Amino acid sequence: MSRRGVPNAKQTGLRYVTWLAACRPSKQNSRAILRRWRPNHFPAKPMADKETVLVLTSNLFFMPRIEAAAESGGLETVSASTAEALMKATEAHDVPLVLVDLEMDEAVWTEALESLAATKDPNTRVVAYGPHGEPGILRKARDLGSDAVLIKRDFSEGLQELLASRGASATS
User: Fold this and answer.
1) How far is CA 70 from CA 13, 34, 63, 119, in A?
2) In the chain, how many domains are there?
3) DSSP secondary structure string for all residues of the chain
4) Does the pLDDT value for residue 130 go beyond 60?
5) Per-residue pLDDT at 44
């Protein structure tokens, strides 16, 4: 407990703890209300002048790394876990780059790559990344229209440069 009797982040297990401004501790209400804050919990409407990188993934542990690299490159990040959600996001945003995680369910990323190949803007690059131990999956992603296919290690190491160049630095 902190000096005020409010649990701190270590004790609550929350990554971010914020006070709700409307509720201050008083004699009647001795406990402050805490809530969890996640940076992209309420997605803002896209700004017309800001480009967006779309990420098809279900790996929530890797997303903060992608978001940090995108932010430093001047990009917003939108993640999707289904092909349908990805296609809706492509229509709603200015998208120079789409990242596709090949460790997802194969049916999901296959549908997404097929849809992107049919409808994407010619200036949009699609970069798929996946495990090095499965060359068949990497080849299939390339055949389905990915501009570049990277093993996850190379993707992870070159993430900053990849996002800064809007996918132009990716070669496979």
Assistant:
1) 27, 29, 10, 24
2) 2
3) --TTS---HHHHT-S-EEE-TT----SS--S--EEE--TTSSPPPPPTTS-EEEEE---TTTHHHHHHHHHHTT-EEEEESSHHHHHHHHHHS--SEEEEETTS-HHHHHHHHHHHHHH--TT-EEEEEE-TT-HHHHHHHHHTT-SEEEEHHHHHHTHHHHHHTTTTT---
4) yes
5) 46
- Give the largest Cα separation in the chain, rounded: 67
Amino acid at 91: E
Judge whether 46 lies within some domain: no
- Does residue 172 or residue 150 have the better pLDDT? 150
**Spatial contact of 144 and 113, defined as CB atoms under 8 Å apart:** yes
Alpha carbon distances (Å) from 111 to 50, 57, 85: 27, 13, 12
Where does the pLDDT of residue 72 fall: very low under 50, low under 70, confident under 90, or very high at 90 and above?
Answer: confident
Q: 74 and 11 share a domain?
A: no
Q: Taking residues 32-40, report their average pLDDT.
A: 44
Which pLDDT belongs to residue 163? 86
Q: pLDDT class for 41, splitting at 50, 70, 90?
A: very low
Q: Are residues 59 and 12 in the same domain?
A: no
